[in-house]
Write a structure and sequence with these properties.
mainly beta, 3-stranded antiparallel beta sheet, two-stranded antiparallel ribbon, 7 strands, about 60% strand
Length: about 80
């Protein structure tokens, strides 16, 4: 899977997996190393999942374009 934003590749992975959860659409989880970390900046948003723990969010920013909270991660 490759994702491009603003003419820049921000994700390129062959190791991503789809996570299927009850009553939710599947989500693609990818290793951090497969992201262009310089395109993502920390967000103030956090959430808690009783199964996966605390999530942190990042905003995708390339040039003047941005997508708030485009990515979330479970660091622990």
């Amino acid at each position: 899977v490759r994702a491009e934003f603003g003419g820049r590749t921000v994700l390129d992975t062959v190791r991503g997996v789809l996570l299927h959860e009850t009553a939710l659409l599947p989500r693609l989880y990818v290793p951090e190393e497969d992201l262009d970390a310089s395109a993502f900046e920390p967000s103030a948003l956090t959430t808690h999942c009783p199964f996966k723990g605390d999530a942190t969010y990042r905003t995708l920013r390339v040039g003047d374009r941005h997508v708030p909270d485009a990515l979330w991660a479970y660091p622990d």
